[in-house]
Recover the amino acids of this structure.
């Protein structure tokens, strides 16, 4: 065990150093170019938060559905879920810093009667209180679930498994409502006049897809070079995760297409504003890139069975999906926050940019997250040894040996 | 040419799987195995290659999707352009749903017909069963015994430890033709 | 360490069955003569069907004017019934395809009958747009074929045309999926039957199946492919149905969440129908060992989760209407909850969101009468959901001068009853002539225990005899 974790410990300083460099440049950016850095911070913090939340949702969904196939690597999504407090803190700070950047606090000058509800809903104090409420709820429930899962390692405690099923159901019910609202409050409200009922589902799709990609990457990383999951995380697990990633890539595309197509088809000015900014002009290729990275490439690459069982192919596809998630959030956040007002007083989005600030935020937050995840993961036994489902021979599909 | 086939009958899939693997390991050619349901892992025990029907499905699906997109574009923008609700001639988002349905339809029918074709299944074909209960609860392993070095006694030695119910000799009248 | 063989899962088949027991138990209802109960049920459903046939004949002869529609409410009962029936079908595909991909073995208890239900429900659904055409004998005009009018092609930009493709693809693929699953079981029945019509029919339909492992190997691949195709298909079908409404600009219809919301609602109503039928069928056909309490429990949980998703969608729609700042949107939702059709709205909310919350309690899920009653309630609630969406969005539109009321005529109600008659007649006939449980699948999934040594000896002697 010591020799095995040695390999991982070696990576620590490497990750930590990169994280320090990235965060250092970000700190400079906060002073030099705060308008440019804030969207980056929002993107990064929201990305990390949804990964952590996605880990909790993964654990809860598998608990509730009585799944047994994931038990061998369940500590990986749990490690993600245990990142929630840190991610919540980061996002809370970013949102606090940027409250003035949301369009709504200034737009209340003369509000027609039908906008009364929106005005009340987006009152800054109410908005901030909700934000704290969502984060606290998620942290508390995710903590209870992961703590019980850890307590399961003590022999003879099957009661914990049953208790976690109930807790997970409660978490999912609260999560469904709060996450839908949070995605509206934090991202959709950047453009306060625009609305879409699909928004929460769209964010769930992106969240779960990227979580799967991270779980794949981490499990593969901790499997290689005699890591803690060597011999435990098998090709069958990878195959299953690959099928899920394929499914959720398609789900993301389905949700994206339905939202786009319905708005395109009905062509109502109050709704098309979002897509006109993004699909016409310089942002068009970025939207296409997000579709290619999130669906087109993963779909065709994941279809053949050998790809889903190959560590190299799966790691590459997971990286594609994670880049795709970044691009997807970039398209949501940047045109709404990096704007300029022209001579006629019309506000329009600036063209897409990728420079030192974007690169530094990406580097800083990605490496810091990886660093924290490694520490969190290695702080606990890597396999839930006494989970009742671990004894299942399972992994045999219903009646087929030839899953494509 | 199979002129002698030995049939070993089993009552449980575990016995059958072990016996099939043993017979294959001993190097005796397996004509076919007959089971009442799809036994998981039997394809590996018999050394069957993964089916290529997935490719048929993929190609049919792509043909359906691309063909339908092209057809819709041709009817809506080239053959007889109609202005409906001011939508552009080439309304790609509106053409996706039907293209998707065409892909699924073609892929589904393509793979099922390919299955029936390569497995020689068609209405009116007489089922020739190796044993009457093979569609109920019996598992039968059919071994080609025409070559040298295999006879009833040899087979009995190989599969005897796996609780075979009986080993019989049968002249080839089964439909178990080895192909694909 | 506890007993390494103990699994936290309940057994798939109870009663310590052998493989031969499975065959015998499932074939038994087919080989017994029909019971009086069956004849009675068939008589009732055929009467309803007859009523429907008369009503349909009348409205085709006289015209769609026999319905209660008016200039403002131009779509009401027929489309409600269409969406309702399509939705019922969705649980069948969910159980047979989606749960197959997720390796939920409990699906084997109900997948055959749920697939049959899909087929019959889609047939029932298809009737309504066909009647609404007014001249159903010209239904082929919805297909793009070269014609002497130009050729004038169908309008591929219309969601109603997407429906034609979606529903026909769904019907065909479901039928193929169902039939492919039936082939091995038909062979089993063939080999059990003595000479006679049953054997002859099964011989033709089982295509000469002989249980060859080479064929099984390919068969499994194709079954998996069909499941993989049917999963996005089931999403697409109700998505396209929802787009009949969502591509419009009518407040209450045009909302982007409609596709996933309709899919969840469809699965919700379909599961309710599966539970309704299965609770009766397991009792009448003595299949308690195959459709066990734990299967019912699983379906209840699935139904509860779908109900919660539907409730979330109701909430999202309401919230966004007020958040949007669009006065027309806000009016539609206020009108739903407080207007002349508020009784329908609150029936929907009570039946779909409030009452199903009882399923959180294990004791409720364990009581078959409770589950049966809940399933009926959900069926009613989901019918009202479609009615609420369709009628309340239309009856008070942008111009108060054109506001109107709507009430169905007796002809429309008779047509609805007729569709129920058709559905139940088909289902009863299916129960008599096809195995309601997929024998070959349940035998493979249940991994029935190895017979004890004494039993094996008996097998051997029996075989020798």
């Amino acid at each position: 065990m010591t020799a095995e974790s040695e390999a991982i410990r070696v990576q620590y300083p490497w990750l930590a150093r990169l994280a320090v460099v990235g965060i250092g440049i970000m700190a400079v950016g906060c002073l030099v170019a705060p308008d440019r850095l804030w969207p980056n911070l929002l993107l990064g913090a929201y990305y990390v938060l949804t990964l952590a939340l996605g880990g909790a949702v993964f654990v809860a969904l598998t608990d509730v559905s009585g799944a047994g196939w994931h038990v061998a690597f369940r500590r990986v999504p749990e490690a993600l879920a245990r990142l929630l407090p840190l991610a919540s803190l980061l996002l809370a700070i970013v949102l606090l810093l940027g409250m003035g950047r949301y369009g709504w606090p200034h737009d209340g000058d003369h509000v027609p009667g039908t906008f009364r509800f929106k005005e009340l809903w987006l009152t800054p104090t109410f908005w901030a209180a909700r934000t704290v409420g969502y984060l606290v709820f998620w942290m508390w429930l995710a903590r209870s679930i992961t703590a019980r899962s850890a307590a399961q390692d003590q022999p003879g405690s099957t009661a914990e498994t049953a208790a976690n099923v109930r807790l997970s159901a409660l978490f999912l019910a609260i999560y469904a409502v709060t996450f839908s609202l949070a995605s509206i409050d934090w991202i959709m409200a950047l453009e306060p006049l625009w609305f879409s009922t699909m928004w929460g589902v769209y964010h769930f799709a992106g969240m779960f897809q990227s979580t799967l990609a991270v779980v794949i990457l981490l499990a593969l990383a901790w499997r290689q070079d005699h890591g803690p999951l060597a011999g435990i995380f098998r090709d069958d697990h990878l195959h299953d995760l690959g099928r899920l990633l394929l499914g959720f890539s398609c789900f993301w595309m389905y949700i994206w297409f339905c939202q786009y197509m319905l708005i395109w088809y009905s062509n109502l000015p109050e709704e098309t504003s979002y897509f006109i900014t993004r699909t016409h002009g310089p942002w068009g290729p970025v939207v296409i890139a997000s579709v290619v990275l999130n669906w087109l490439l993963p779909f065709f690459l994941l279809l053949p069975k050998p790809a889903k069982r190959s560590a190299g192919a799966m790691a590459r596809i997971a990286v594609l999906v994670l880049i795709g998630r970044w691009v997807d959030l970039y398209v949501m956040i940047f045109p709404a926050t990096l704007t300029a007002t022209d001579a006629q007083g019309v506000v329009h989005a600036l063209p897409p940019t990728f420079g030192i600030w974007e690169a530094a935020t990406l580097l800083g937050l990605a490496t810091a997250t990886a660093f924290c995840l490694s520490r969190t993961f290695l702080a606990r036994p890597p396999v839930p040894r006494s989970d009742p489902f671990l004894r299942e021979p399972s992994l045999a599909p219903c009646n087929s040996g030839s899953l494509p | 040419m199979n002129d002698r086939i030995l049939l070993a009958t089993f009552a449980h899939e575990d016995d059958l799987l072990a016996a099939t693997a043993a017979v294959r390991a001993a190097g005796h050619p397996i004509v076919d195995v007959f089971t009442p349901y799809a036994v998981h892992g039997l394809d590996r025990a018999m050394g069957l290659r993964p089916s290529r029907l997935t490719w048929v499905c993929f190609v049919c699906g792509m043909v359906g999707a691309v063909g339908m997109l092209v057809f819709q574009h041709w009817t809506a923008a080239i053959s007889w352009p109609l202005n409906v609700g001011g939508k552009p001639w080439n309304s790609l988002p509106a053409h996706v749903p039907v293209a998707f349905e065409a892909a699924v339809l073609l892929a589904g029918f393509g793979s099922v017909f390919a299955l029936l074709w390569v497995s020689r299944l068609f209405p009116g074909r007489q089922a020739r069963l190796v044993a009457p209960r093979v569609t109920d609860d019996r598992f039968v392993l059919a071994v080609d015994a025409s070559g040298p070095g295999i006879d009833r006694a040899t087979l009995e030695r190989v599969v005897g430890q796996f609780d075979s119910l009986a080993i019989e000799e049968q002249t080839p009248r089964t439909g178990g033709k080895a192909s694909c | 360490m506890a007993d390494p063989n103990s699994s936290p899962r309940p057994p798939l088949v109870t009663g310590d069955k052998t493989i031969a027991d499975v065959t015998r138990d499932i074939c038994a209802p087919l080989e017994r003569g029909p019971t009086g109960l069956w004849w009675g049920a068939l008589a009732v459903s055929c009467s309803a069907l007859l009523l429907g046939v008369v009503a349909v004949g009348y409205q085709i002869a006289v015209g769609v004017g026999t319905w209660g529609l008016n200039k403002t409410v131009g779509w009401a009962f027929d489309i409600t019934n269409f969406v309702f029936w399509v939705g019922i079908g969705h649980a069948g595909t969910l159980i047979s395809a989606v749960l197959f991909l997720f390796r939920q073995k409990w699906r084997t208890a109900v997948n055959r009958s749920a697939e049959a239900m899909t087929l019959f429900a889609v047939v029932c659904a298809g009737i309504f747009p066909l009647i609404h055409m007014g001249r159903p004998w010209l239904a082929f005009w919805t297909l793009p074929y070269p014609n002497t009018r130009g050729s004038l092609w169908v309008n591929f930009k219309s969601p109603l045309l997407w429906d034609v493709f979606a529903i026909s693809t769904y019907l065909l693929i479901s039928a193929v999926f169902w039939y492919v699953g039936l082939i091995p079981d038909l062979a089993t029945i063939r080999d059990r039957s003595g000479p006679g019509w049953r054997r002859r029919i099964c011989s033709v339909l089982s295509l000469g199946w002989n249980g060859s492992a080479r064929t099984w190997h390919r068969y499994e691949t194709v079954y998996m492919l069909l499941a993989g195709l049917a999963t996005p298909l089931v999403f697409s079908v109700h998505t396209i149905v929802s787009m009949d409404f969502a591509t419009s600009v009518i407040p209450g219809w045009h909302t982007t969440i409609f596709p996933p919301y309709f899919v969840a609602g469809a699965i919700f109503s379909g599961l309710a129908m599966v539970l309704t039928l299965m609770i009766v069928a397991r009792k009448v056909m003595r299949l308690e060992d195959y459709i066990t309490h734990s299967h019912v429990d699983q379906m209840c949980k699935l139904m509860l989760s779908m109900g919660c998703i539907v409730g979330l969608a109701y909430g999202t729609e309401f919230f966004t209407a007020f958040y949007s700042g669009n006065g027309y949107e806000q009016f539609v939702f206020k009108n739903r909850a407080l207007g002349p059709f508020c009784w329908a709205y609150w029936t929907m909310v009570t039946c779909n969101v409030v009452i199903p919350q009882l399923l959180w309690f294990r004791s409720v899920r364990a009581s078959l009468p409770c589950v049966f009653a809940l399933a009926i309630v959900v069926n009613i609630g989901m019918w009202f959901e479609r009615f609420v969406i369709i009628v309340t969005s239309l009856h008070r539109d942008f111009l108060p001068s054109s506001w109107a009321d709507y009430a169905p005529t007796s002809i429309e109600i008779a047509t609805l009853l007729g569709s129920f008659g058709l559905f139940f007649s088909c289902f009863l006939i299916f129960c008599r002539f096809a195995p309601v449980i997929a024998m070959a699948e349940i035998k493979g999934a249940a991994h029935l225990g190895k017979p004890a040594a004494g039993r094996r000896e008996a097998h051997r002697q029996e075989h020798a005899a």
In short: Chain C has 16 helices and no strands. Residues 19-145+155-464 of chain C form a domain with the Formate dehydrogenase/DMSO reductase fold fold (CATH 1.20.1630.10). Chain C touches chain B through 75 residues (CB under 8 Å).
